[in-house]
């Protein structure tokens, strides 16, 4: 399982693993892939500094990457308090009423009320500044092309830039902006995702950007067979996120690990929904009573990013603390139907590689 990306990044396998957990990212890098740490959860640059220092020290000198959330066009942005003043009262009342109906208790006074501020442009900028003090070899942007000065600064540091694309025209725009690697994220993926499925999107993007721009296939990939399929469609590697949520190293990310494990191990591939309730942009989440409440008659329409995230931030913290698998709010792709047990990252990586190799051998016999 090698491609030019392996030589470009000094990795054994072209498996790029997006994860909010530094422990997962480090384990993937140690196992021969490229762990990519999601930075959106860090409100405190000092915490991100500590985590990246830990990654520097716990990856056996193997490479790793980071993922930021930064729109190309710099928004007009005041303080988080200014933004919160733009949230309608009806939305606030709906969230509180829904949490009460679902039996989600309030948090202890003073806990978890700030929410995640990493969706704000200014915070994402601070994430980049911290990352450049460490040794990531790759920086991915979850909202497409980052601003031109960010791309230039990363290139000056010898860091390659990746950007997610849900359509061929978006991929072409990224290349024109100086992005090095396109992540073709299909409809099946968890988190922010477009409307075109991976089987169609990956070859569309590969053909659009041409042979000189590497493409990572993303969305619906959770096995060696699916990695082989993505690379058969022209991708030079894969971008995987959901699968790592079911690993031992992911435990400890929050106080809802028991509820989350119950929720994903019993879920089928039909138990997700693409909705704007999480951030204000279309994102695929686990289908629960929380997402269903937003789809009921009379529910308000989700607000645009970043207002929706600010609206539901405390609610998500309360849901997490409640540890209820019927309510939990979590981005995850349709691959959740294959996540039936919790396993260590090294074992997952070994199985991915083994099944990929077995698949290629089987296809060789067919072609022969």
TrEMBL record:
<dbReference type="InterPro" id="IPR013785">
    <property type="entry name" value="Aldolase_TIM"/>
</dbReference>
<dbReference type="GO" id="GO:0018580">
    <property type="term" value="F:nitronate monooxygenase activity"/>
</dbReference>
<dbReference type="InterPro" id="IPR004136">
    <property type="entry name" value="NMO"/>
</dbReference>
<keyword id="KW-0560">Oxidoreductase</keyword>
<keyword id="KW-0285">Flavoprotein</keyword>
<protein>
    <submittedName>
        <fullName>NAD(P)H-dependent flavin oxidoreductase YrpB, nitropropane dioxygenase family</fullName>
    </submittedName>
</protein>
<dbReference type="Pfam" id="PF03060">
    <property type="entry name" value="NMO"/>
</dbReference>
<dbReference type="GO" id="GO:0051213">
    <property type="term" value="F:dioxygenase activity"/>
</dbReference>
<keyword id="KW-0223">Dioxygenase</keyword>
<keyword id="KW-0288">FMN</keyword>
């Amino acid at each position: 399982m090698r491609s030019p990306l392996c030589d470009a990044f000094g990795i054994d396998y072209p498996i790029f693993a997006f994860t909010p957990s530094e422990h997962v990212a480090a384990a993937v890098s140690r196992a021969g892939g490229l762990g990519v740490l999601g930075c959106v959860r860090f409100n405190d640059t000092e915490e991100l500094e500590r985590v990246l220092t830990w990654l520097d020290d716990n990856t056996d000198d193997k490479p790793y990457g980071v993922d930021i959330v930064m729109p190309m066009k710099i928004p007009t942005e005041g303080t988080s308090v200014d933004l919160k003043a733009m949230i309608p009262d009806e939305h606030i009342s709906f969230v509180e009423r829904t949490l009460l109906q679902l039996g989600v208790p309030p948090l202890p006074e003073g806990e978890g009320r700030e929410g995640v501020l990493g969706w704000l442009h200014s915070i994402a900028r601070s994430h980049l500044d911290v990352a450049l003090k460490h040794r990531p070899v790759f920086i991915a942007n979850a909202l497409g092309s980052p601003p031109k000065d960010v791309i230039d600064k990363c290139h000056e540091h010898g860091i390659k830039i990746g950007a997610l694309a849900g359509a061929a025209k978006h991929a072409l725009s990224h290349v024109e902006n100086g992005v090095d690697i396109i992540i073709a994220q299909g409809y099946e993926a968890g988190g922010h995702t477009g409307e075109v499925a991976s089987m169609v999107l990956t070859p569309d993007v590969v053909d659009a950007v041409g042979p000189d721009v590497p493409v990572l296939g993303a969305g619906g990939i959770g096995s060696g067979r699916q990695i082989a399929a993505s690379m058969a469609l022209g991708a030079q590697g894969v971008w995987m996120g959901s699968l790592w949520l079911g690993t031992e190293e992911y435990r400890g990310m929050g106080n809802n690990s028991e509820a989350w494990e119950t929720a994903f191990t019993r879920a089928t591939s039909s138990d997700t929904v693409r909705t704007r309730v999480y951030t204000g942009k279309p994102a695929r989440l686990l289908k629960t009573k929380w997402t269903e409440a937003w789809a009921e008659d009379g529910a308000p329409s989700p607000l645009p990013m970043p207002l929706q995230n600010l609206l539901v931030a405390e609610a998500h913290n309360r849901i997490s603390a409640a540890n209820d698998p019927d309510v939990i709010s979590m981005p995850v792709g349709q691959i959740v139907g294959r996540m039936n047990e919790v396993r260590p990252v090294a074992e997952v990586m070994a199985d991915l590689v083994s099944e990929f190799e077995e698949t290629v051998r089987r296809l060789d016999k067919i072609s022969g």
